[in-house]
Input
Amino acid sequence: MPRGYMEGPAAEEAERRLEELERGPTADEPEQRLAVFGSTDDDSEPHFLGWRDEVDPDELFESGRAWGLKVMRRSAA
Output
């Protein structure tokens, strides 16, 4: 039987988001961009390869120039 309220982590996240929206945007939050990380022949440890709008992770992988690719949000600053 459905309940007429939320509880647990989903409710906490919804409440946090509502408070965030009520406060409005903050100027001190840095811009977030999609960053591509992966390994290359030069450095087998995962490292920053470039911004997603500047490099194509599919092309890097298919060409064999990089592997273990991840795209994550990072601060542009």
Observations:
- Residues 9-75 form one domain.
- Strands lie at 32-39, 47-51, 67-75.
